[in-house]
Specification:
The chain has 442 residues and is α+β, with helices and mostly antiparallel strands. It is built from 4 helices and 31 strands. It binds zinc ion. The site of zinc ion has 5 residues, from loops.
Length: 442
C-alpha cells in the first residue's frame, strides 16, 4: 500500500467510526424515547403532615431506575423517601406524606422529586426529571363553633345545625355513622347542614359529629349532643300475586334477560335494583343548590288517603311463603286514578324519567341536600333542570314501577338518604327545626 492509499484508508476508517458513533447516539436517543412524565397531586399549594400526596411516574420505553423525594425549609433539607427499582418498571405510583419528624414549622417549604430512568445518555442529563413544588405548611386545624341546632330528632327524621368555621375548608358536613351529610356555606359566611337520623339506626348509636377538613388536610370534629327519639315502625305483610308479577315484571325483563320466571325477576328487582336505586339517590342528592330554594311547609297530594307509611317493615309472601323483607321509605298516598301531582315546594327538577322500582319518577331539588321524590307516575310533565313552583303540576299518579294500584309514593331525602316526609308537612316542625336555624343565615 502506498502512502496515498494508506491515508485514504484512515480517512474511510475515521468516517466509518464517526457514522457508527452517530448511529449509536441516534439508537440510544430513540431507545430512550421521550422523557419520563411526572404528576404530583393534589395541585393545592398548602399542605400539612396529613396531606396524602400521590406521585405518578410514567417512563416511556425504558424502565425506571430510581427516585428520591426531599423537602426543605430555611436552607435545611431532609431526604425522606428513596426507591431503587430492580425490575425497570414502566410506571410507578407512590402515595406519601411529608415527614412529621422533619420538625418544620408552619410557613413555606419546598418539595423536590427527582426521577431517573435507565437512559443510555444519562451522562448528558437525559432520563432525569424533577419537580419542585413550593408549598405553605399549615398545621393549624380549623375551629368549629356551633351557633344553633336542633336538640332532638325523630328516628327516621331530619335535623339541622348551623356553625362557624375559622378558615376555608375542603370538606365540611355532619357524619352520622357511615353517612356523611355535606354542609353548605351561606351568605352570612356560616355553614348550614341538614342531616338524617337514619331509620335503621338504634337511637343509642346516634352520635352526629361535625367534620371539617381544611385545604391543607387538617381536620377538626365536634360532637353534637342531640337526643334521638325512638320510633316504632309498623309491620306489614304483602302478598305478591301472579297477576301482579305478570303485569309488572315486563317493565324489567329486558334488564334481567337470564331470569326465566316473573318471580325470579321480581326477587332481583326488589333487592338488587332497590339497592342500586339507593346508590343513585345518593348521587342525585349531591347535585343540589347551595342555598334553600323553598319556603314554608311542603304540600301533600290533595284529597288523598294515607296508605303505607314511612319505615313500614314489609314481609313479602308468595303462595304463603316469605320471599323477602324490605323497608318502605316513603308515604303512599291514594287519590283518584291519574290524579294531578303538585310539586311539594319550589325547586329544580333533579331527575325525571323511569327510575327502577319507582317507575316513572320525578325528584325535585330544594337546595342544601333536601329533595322530594314522586313515584309510580303515569305521566311526567316536567323536564330535568326545570324550575318548578310549589303546587305546580309535575305529572299524574299511576301504577308504574312496583306499584300494586294507582297511588303516589312520596319521599323526602336528605343528601340522598330517605327520611319521613311527615315532618315536612308540619309547619310548626319546620319552624322549630329548620327555619329557626336557617333564617339567621340569609
Ligand atoms: Zn310506596
Amino acid at each position: 500500500m502506498d502512502k496515498k492509499g494508506s491515508s485514504a484508508f484512515l480517512r474511510n476508517a475515521f468516517i466509518l467510526l464517526l457514522l457508527t458513533l452517530v448511529g449509536l447516539g441516534v439508537f440510544a436517543y430513540i431507545r430512550d424515547g421521550s422523557q419520563p412524565v411526572l404528576s404530583l397531586a393534589p395541585q393545592s399549594d398548602v399542605a400539612s403532615y396529613n396531606t396524602d400526596f400521590t406521585l405518578k411516574i410514567t417512563a416511556n420505553k425504558i424502565g425506571l431506575k430510581n427516585f428520591s423525594i426531599s423537602v426543605s425549609q430555611d436552607g435545611k433539607s431532609v431526604d425522606f423517601l428513596e426507591r431503587t427499582f430492580a425490575d425497570k418498571p414502566m410506571e410507578h405510583t407512590e402515595v406519601f406524606r411529608l415527614p412529621r419528624e422533619s420538625g418544620f414549622k408552619e410557613g413555606p417549604v419546598e418539595l423536590t422529586v427527582v426521577v431517573r430512568t435507565h437512559s443510555l445518555l444519562s451522562f448528558i442529563g437525559r432520563g432525569k426529571v424533577s419537580i419542585v413544588r413550593k408549598l405553605t405548611l399549615d398545621l393549624t386545624p380549623p375551629r368549629v363553633t356551633v351557633n344553633q341546632g336542633v336538640h332532638n330528632v325523630n328516628q327516621g327524621g331530619a335535623g339541622a345545625v348551623s356553625f362557624t368555621v375559622t378558615k376555608p375548608v375542603a370538606r365540611v358536613g355532619v357524619a352520622v355513622g357511615d353517612y356523611f351529610f355535606p354542609a353548605y356555606q351561606q351568605k352570612s359566611g356560616d355553614y348550614f347542614c341538614f342531616f338524617a337520623m337514619p331509620h335503621e339506626m338504634l337511637p343509642t348509636n346516634f352520635k352526629p359529629r361535625i367534620i371539617v377538613r381544611d385545604m391543607a388536610g387538617n381536620e377538626a370534629t365536634q360532637t353534637l349532643y342531640i337526643y334521638a327519639i325512638p320510633k316504632e315502625f309498623k309491620f306489614d305483610k304483602l302478598n305478591v300475586s301472579d297477576e301482579f308479577l305478570n303485569d309488572k315484571m315486563s317493565q324489567y325483563s329486558a334488564q334481567y334477560p337470564t331470569e326465566q320466571s316473573p318471580l325470579d325477576i321480581y326477587k332481583r328487582v326488589n333487592n338488587e335494583l332497590r339497592k342500586q336505586n339507593e346508590g343513585e339517590l345518593k348521587r342525585i342528592g349531591q347535585e343540589t343548590a347551595a342555598t334553600p330554594l323553598w319556603t314554608g311547609p311542603f304540600l301533600r297530594l290533595p284529597n288523598a288517603a294515607g296508605r303505607a307509611g314511612f319505615g313500614d317493615q314489609r314481609d313479602y309472601f308468595y303462595n304463603g311463603m316469605k320471599i323477602d323483607h324490605q323497608t318502605h321509605l316513603g308515604v303512599d298516598l291514594a287519590s283518584l286514578a291519574n290524579a294531578p301531582v303538585p310539586a311539594a315546594n319550589d325547586g329544580k327538577v333533579a331527575f325525571a324519567g323511569f327510575f327502577g322500582i319507582y317507575g316513572n319518577c320525578v325528584i325535585i331539588d330544594h337546595g342544601l341536600g333536601l329533595q322530594s321524590l314522586y313515584s309510580h307516575l303515569d305521566s311526567i310533565d316536567v323536564a330535568l333542570g326545570a324550575d318548578v313552583k310549589r303546587g305546580q303540576f309535575i305529572g299524574k299518579t299511576g301504577t308504574t314501577g312496583l306499584a300494586g294500584g294507582d297511588h303516589l309514593h312520596f319521599g323526602i331525602l336528605i343528601s340522598g338518604v330517605q327520611v319521613s316526609p311527615v315532618e315536612w308537612w308540619d309547619e310548626h316542625w319546620i319552624k322549630d327545626n329548620v327555619l329557626k336555624h336557617l333564617n339567621r343565615q340569609q
